[in-house]
Specification:
Elements lengths: L1 H23 L4 H5 L1 H14 L6 H9 L7 H13 L13 H11 L4 E4 L5 E3 L7 H24 L4 E2 L5 E2 L1
Antiparallel strand pairs: 1-2, 3-4
Helix pairs in contact: 4-5
Length: about 170
């Protein structure tokens, strides 16, 4: 009796595995072949702070190290991976959450840097600025905001809000 229960469970399990395997499909041999290059490329783009728009240069440079027949497909695969990058899958590229967050924030600059306590804000320049300068400016801006907030909490300096009135 136990033997037949085991055989029945095995058949059901193997049938569901076959359906699951058929639904997911076979792995892409191209992506398997160039898995390490793609991983290193995406890691370099994120850690170096390339914006998504300028990442094509790094992708193209890496593609020149690959066999000519596979270069266009490699570029497409790298661009697809980069566009599909989000909070749920960045770990596969061995990127820390802080590195990904910094890269993501630099790729989506805000019009306003965020309000300080008391309503004061620091606008981000609307002029076209090279990417590295924007990231540096945003980093300095956030440090400045933290400093102002700390000093505002301690009431050591006056803070001017949007309307121009001084708050103590």
């Amino acid at each position: 009796m136990l033997k037949w229960a085991f055989i029945d469970a095995y058949r059901k399990s193997s049938a569901s595995y076959a359906k699951l395997r058929q639904a997911t499909g076979e792995p892409d041999p191209f992506r398997i072949q160039y898995r390490d290059q793609l991983r290193k490329l995406i890691f370099t783009i994120i850690v170096s702070g390339f914006p998504r728009a300028a990442a094509g240069t790094a992708i193209g440079a890496t593609a020149t190290t690959i066999v000519e027949n596979d270069q266009t497909r490699f570029i497409e695969a790298a661009q697809t991976e980069l566009l599909a990058l989000h909070e749920g899958n960045f770990a596969r590229y061995h990127v820390t959450p802080l590195q990904f967050k910094t890269w993501k924030n630099c790729n989506y600059p805000m019009k306003q840097a965020g309000a300080f306590k008391g309503g004061a804000t620091m606008p981000v320049p609307e002029l076209p600025i090279p990417f590295a300068n924007v990231c540096i400016a945003r980093s300095i801006e956030l440090k400045l905001a933290n400093l102002v907030n700390q000093q505002y909490e301690n009431s050591t300096i006056p803070v001017v809000n949007k309307a121009g009135s001084t708050m103590v």
